[in-house]
Amino acid sequence: MRTSSRHRVAARMMAAIGVVSLMAACSGNGAGSGNGGATGGGYPDKNITFVVPFSAGGPTDTVTRMIAEPMAAKLGAKIVVQNVEGAGGTVGAGEVARAQPDGYTVLMHHIGMSTAPALYKDLGYKPLEDFGTVGLVTEVPMTVVARKDFAPATLQDLVAHVKANAGKVTLANAGIGAASHLCGLLFQSAAGVKLQEVPYEGTGPALTDLVGGQVDFMCDQTTNTSGQISAGEVKAYAVTTPERVKSLPDVPTTAEAGLPKLQVSVWHGLYVPAGTPQEVVQKLSEALKAALADRAVVDQMAKLGTTPVPAEDATPQAHRDKLQEQLGTWAKVIADAGVKAS
Length: 342
Ligand code: MLT
Description:
Blueprint: H1 3-16, E1 20-22, H2 36-39, E2 48-52, H3 59-75, E3 79-83, H4 90-97, E4 105-110, H5 112-119, H6 127-130, E5 131-147, H7 155-164, E6 170-173, H8 179-191, E7 196-199, H9 203-211, E8 217-221, H10 222-230, E9 234-239, E10 265-273, H11 278-292, H12 295-303, H13 316-337
Parallel strand pairs: 2-3, 2-4, 6-7, 6-8
Antiparallel strand pairs: 1-3, 4-10, 5-8, 5-9, 5-10
Helix pairs in contact: 3-11, 5-13
The chain binds D-malate.
D-malate (MLT) binds near residues 61 and 180.
């Protein structure tokens, strides 16, 4: 992209920074402007921004903040997490695609990176061409959850209820192309129903409205629904994985609950703009591996129903292979479902 445009993006990011900052246990890493990043030699010598393309408090934000601190410690630099939400993650992803390829702007994205090209007509970026992959992070199961006073007691009751109340039941999602949107599509296709969908800008606000009873149900990641399920703030019908989730032992799988076709889990990965020096990508990948082996991260993920990927998947190549495979898979699912975001 053009340099002026890159500068505009960088300026906008700097202006919006400050949502949360995670300081590594080190000094002398202020916002210096050394040129080490251009070749990777002295990287990192200033703050690194991790862009989350969804709202604060959602699953992507949760996973990012979990790994940011140990990654910062390993890199010896400060990592600032910035939420750039909108359009199912495509606004934040687009900003990173257009950022300077110097390793100081990094994107955390999930399965939505592989679904957006099939959903959006004018995406403005190409996942395989405009990004470098750093490594996979985790794969998160999803849950079908409802407001706690919603009448259906089981997943099969839910299907019967939505069939009997066509047009009245509301299904929340975190935006077109969000994981919750995809899971909602899979639910509708598995159950043979068509629902009234209510898109939000992220799971944070969607879940708030679900707990508050403004929408009926949604499908979202255990990283953000586990707490509410355990606290009884939402009703859980099923987890969308072949096995039950250890931290939610009483919640049946979709297969056990009578909807075996509803299977999906949400993979996350770290990206940099294409053209980022190889040494920089390597340093980020090593820091990612260290974070995923960190005891506190492993324990925190386990409580939220997930696990870090094995070390060999926290690599640029494994991540690229996964992205390539998923782009093909979702292009077909989305074409079959006949869904378009714009
Ligand atoms: C989020 O962070 O809000 C979610 O990952 C959104 C989603 O994809 O459902």
